[in-house]
Amino acid sequence: MPIGVIESLDHEGRGVTRADGKTVFVEGALPAERVEYSSYRRKPSYELASLARVLARSSQRVEPVCPHFGTCGGCSMQHLEAAAQAATKQRVLEDVLWHLARLRPGQVYPAISGACRGYRHRARLSVRLVPKKGGVLVGFHERRSSYVADMRSCDVLPPHVGRLLPELKTLVGSLSIADRLPQIEVAVGDEVTVLVLRILQRLTRIDEQLIRDFAGRHGVHVYLQTGGPDSAAPFFPERPAELWYALPEFDVRIDFSPTHFTQVNPFVNRMLVRRAMALLDPRPGERVSDMFCGLGNFSLPIARCGAQVVGVEGSPALVAAAQANARRNGLEGSAEFSLANLFETDEQTLSALGRLDKMLIDPPREGAIALVKALGRDAPRRIVYVSCNPATLARDAAVLVHDKGYRLRGVGIANMFPHTSHVESVALLERA
Fold first, then answer.
1. What is the mean pLDDT of the chain?
2. Which of 90, 255, 370, 400 is deepest in the core (most CB within 10 A)?
3. What pTM did the predictor assign?
């Protein structure tokens, strides 16, 4: 079995070593470790491998707290000390910015970090009926597999949700549609926990009663989803309490439905909003745009700071929800929202928004290339870019810096997904 010394971690948290002129990515290995590994995929220039044995151990290696680590694909970095995880993500972000965009930030902001356990308030659990494995499985997918991990707990879900996994297995196994319920979505608000059951067949009356009993016994609310996300509707109780989360620093409450996009980690989100507002520095008399505004997670704090905010979003349902949140927080006079496809925007579309002093961009993984290319000579002097994909951040920042005259003043990570290789970040760009 080959032996290698790990040089670094890649953007997926895999150890990197070299052998016979090829790069070898070793899952579960850490920098400075000497390891035995077993390759499971070989290509002309690289190999993918699994860790067989650690011969010389890193001082940053820790024992994973989850018994399913290594099988479940939900976490890939539980074997690495929490502070080292954040440092690794910061290095990945800086490396991507340099290699893809030839950019170095003027300043590296301190990492935004929070608790590593119980942080995941949004999750999509897969469900499968597998008689050969004893019945119903509920959990995340196994690593490198479409199979569902046989999970009896989950350390990154809130404790009251993680403890429900065995109970959910029993519930689904008792239903007549056990093989027609492929997914359970979890949405946890500040006061309410909702489970959205994706069902492909109608429930019987007995099924309905079993679900009501389960929800009442465990203090959760249940929605049923028969089609796309918009089909999710309350089942029990018939009039559920509202889902919401607070941003106390800005005296803002964001209401949402269980299938709306919200940040997975509400604790890091609060710190991320604070960092974004500090960098954006919205002031009375300024007009600020919030691109890909969603429910108003950044828009409403901008308005609370005294600026006039223009939120732009491509989903009619989210635009309506953002408008409702503005009214609920008494900010309708300072916040307006409009519908636009920002993936196909142009300079004329942006000009229609009027004068903009500053801009916040919070796109999905695809980034905002059309938007940044559409910025003209009257573009905002300051942009705060919140990213969930270092590669598209680098691509878009390259356009802003090399073509549009901005400078990358600073960048830093927000460890939104501890124990995973996912890198969330926030960057400040200003016109020179």
1. 96
2. 400
3. 0.95
